[in-house]
Design goal:
Number of domains: 1
Number of helices: 9
Shape: elongated
Structural class: mainly alpha
């Protein structure tokens, strides 16, 4: 039961960060959103930093599980560019809700000022890079491990831009195709 309460609090925290931002997060708001008493919240999380750290960790753990499945499907495979782009599209489109994505970006930014959050952020980026490298290797891109962080940076940048501008016209597939062409791979079978 205690784990369920913690999970509800962490889920509510991520949603609220995505909706309102870290700066407007208070224990009272989180407790209300998680449908727990303020005392219950402070019993489980003695500080905001602990709450933020565990919220980021919970997000990262879920992402690592999801990304490990995708990476396992890609590692050792030989794919056409179109097949690799389909995998990338699936990975991007099955990402969490808009609020969760915004919370993710907020927590990453917060990690720039908080040493305790950097390790979790680094683990998540490493998992994204693993998927990107596996996809790039599958289509024959040389130095895929070195190129992977560029690809994940492109995806993060486009996602931030889409969220910030609310522009549904940002086409990840077109951007990824352009990126892959720039690497010298042909985006046809």
């Amino acid at each position: 039961m205690s784990a369920d309460v913690r999970t509800r609090i962490l889920t509510a925290t991520l949603e609220l960060i995505g909706e309102r931002g870290i700066g407007s997060l208070t224990n009272r708001i989180v407790a209300k959103a998680a449908n727990v008493s303020l005392g219950t919240l402070t019993y489980h999380f003695v500080s905001q930093e602990q709450l933020l750290g565990e919220a980021l960790q919970a997000f990262v753990d879920e992402e690592l599980d999801r990304l490990s499945v995708i990476a396992a499907q890609l590692e050792g495979a030989t794919l056409s560019v179109d097949e690799a782009l389909a995998h990338a599209r699936d990975a991007i489109e099955t990402r969490p809700s808009r609020h969760a994505q915004t919370a993710q970006l907020e927590l990453y930014l917060h990690a720039t000022r908080n040493d305790g959050l950097r390790e979790a952020a680094a683990r998540c980026y490493a998992a994204y890079d693993r998927v990107a490298a596996a996809a790039l290797k599958a289509i024959g891109v040389p130095e895929a491990d070195r190129v992977a962080p560029l690809l994940t940076g492109l995806v993060d940048g486009l996602e931030l831009r889409r969220l910030a501008t609310d522009d549904p016209g940002i086409d990840f597939a077109a951007a990824l195709t352009t990126f892959v062409r720039g690497l010298g791979a042909s985006p046809t079978s």
